[in-house]
Specification:
Distance between the termini: 76 Å
Strand order of the largest sheet: 5-4-3-6-7
CATH architecture of one domain: 2-Layer Sandwich
CATH class of one domain: Alpha Beta
Strand content: 15-25%
Radius of gyration: 32 Å
Number of strands: 9
Number of helices: 8
CATH topology of one domain: Nucleotidyltransferase, domain 5
Order of helices and strands: EEHHHHEEEHEHEHHEE
Helix content: 25-40%
CATH superfamily of one domain: Ribonuclease H-like superfamily/Ribonuclease H
Length: 286
């Protein structure tokens, strides 16, 4: 920068004052060093083509196949960035189709999974969740305090489905608990075929995993429980709320046991109904 000095006289007789102004001599832009050259268009096209032809391939697998086929040295991070910018899945191609195909009718396919929670006394409790794949309906919960073995798992499952019929198939993950001899024998007696999900692929068991997340966020994060009976009672309250009153985005705002019928509440006169012992309040017709 350069400073220019200017003198100015006033008609009022005031002595001249000095004025300084600034004039730029050059642009303030700085040129950085050029970054590394990215993959060529041919490499990008090959990566996108592999993903389109093999939708279930992950980034590490695609990087391995590209390196093997073309003798390159790219890693999974490069593949991830390329797919994020250049790849868009075809409509209707996401997810696994066999679950939808098998569970196309009510009570044809049930999904089950386990999760653990702790009481106010810091005692571990295991919860078995059973849900209908087609209607997203909670079939029931089985609760057990302490470690789970084959006998306890069978009892939890029988408790969860005690007021329901039986499905043709059950979908479970690859948890070692589902390999107990008593569990497999129980399924044979009930004439239920067990379908295993794809290992290390959460999308192959999406609905029950999302249900467990909802139970944790909406219920267990806001309440305490003392014993397994206390927990079981609160889970039953949540089951009634979830199946009959809670709107579901996957069901276009409906409920698994669609009971709304013609009872539409009037915005001028309506009441509030409490659920889960005051944890939720929903509007109903007056």
């Amino acid at each position: 920068m350069i400073l220019h000095r200017h003198e100015r006289s006033d008609d009022s007789g005031i002595s001249p004052t000095d004025h300084y102004c600034q004039a730029p001599l050059y642009s303030a832009k700085k040129r950085g060093k050029p970054g590394p050259k990215g993959p060529s268009k041919e490499v990008i096209d090959a990566i996108v083509a592999i993903k389109r032809r093999n939708p279930h391939f992950g980034c590490p697998r695609i990087a391995q196949q590209i390196n093997l086929a073309f003798g390159l040295e790219i890693d999974k991070d490069i593949v991830r960035r390329i797919l994020a910018k250049h790849y868009r899945p075809d409509p209707g191609s996401a997810g696994v189709s066999w679950l939808t195909f098998i569970g196309h009718t009510k009570d044809s396919l049930w999904s089950i999974d386990l999760f653990r929670c702790e009481s106010i006394l810091l005692k571990s409790h295991w919860v078995l969740v059973v849900m209908d794949q087609f209607t997203r309906r909670i079939i029931g919960f089985g609760v057990h305090a302490g470690d789970v073995d084959g006998l306890a798992l069978c009892r939890m499952f029988n408790d969860a489905i005690s007021k329901q019929g039986l499905p043709r198939y059950i979908s479970s993950d690859n948890d070692p608990l589902f390999l107990y001899h008593r569990w497999l024998a129980n399924l044979r007696i009930l004439d239920i075929d067990e379908i295993k999900t794809v290992p290390h692929v959460p999308i192959s068991h999406p609905f029950v995993e999302r249900l467990i997340g909802s139970v944790r966020r909406e219920l267990l994060a806001h309440i305490f429980f003392w014993t397994s009976n206390d927990l079981n009672g609160k889970l039953c309250d949540y089951q009634n709320y979830f199946n009959r009153h809670r709107g579901h985005s996957s069901l276009d705002g409906g409920t698994p046991e669609e009971i709304r019928g013609g009872s539409i509440a009037d915005l001028g006169t309506y009441h509030w109904q409490s659920h889960c012992r005051g944890l939720f309040e929903l509007p109903i017709t007056a």
